[in-house]
Amino acid sequence: MTLILFNKPYGVLSQFTDRGTETARATLSDFIDQPGVYPAGRLDRDSEGLLLLTDDGRLQARIADPKFKLPKTYLVQVEGSPDEAALDRLRAGPMLNDGPTRPAEAARIDDPALWPRDPPIRVRQSIADCWLMLTIREGRNRQVRRMTAAIGHPTLRLVRWRIGDWSLEGIAPGAWLMA
Which of 113, 121, 147, 174 is deepest in the core (most CB within 10 A)? Predict the structure, then answer.
C-alpha cells in the first residue's frame, strides 16, 4: 500500500489532468510522479495544505467518505474578528443552503507560522483579520468557506493542516512524502 502526504499549493487542482480550460492549470502531475495513486478526497484550487493520495481503494474510501467521520483540521484566516457567539455557531453546526453542518471544533489561534501564499491574500487596512482552527467531520463542497461566511466572517486563506492522524507538519508547499 502506498500513502502520500502532499502539501498542495494554492492554485493547484486536486487531480492529475486539467480538462477544464484552454490554458493549462497546475495539477498533481506537476508535483507527484508516483504511478497508481489517486487523491483521497479533494481540496479546492484556492485552498492549500494536506492532500492524501493512495493506491488502496479501501483506505481512499475511509479517508474521503463522510460516513467515517474522519476529522479534518483547517487553519482558516477570516475577515474580521469572530466573537465567542460566532465561534459557538460554528461549534453548533451552522445552517447552510444544503442544511445544517455537523458540529465543529472551533477556536481562535495566534497567527500560525506558515509559508507565504503566492499570490498573497488581499489585505485591507481598514478591516482586521484573525486565524481560526476549525475541525470538521464531513466534507461538503467548499464547506469551511461557507461555514465562516454563514457567521459573517468570510475566509481569506484556507490551509488543511490535518486529516485524522496525518499532519502537514514539516512538509513544504509542493513537497510530498510517503507515510
Answer: 147
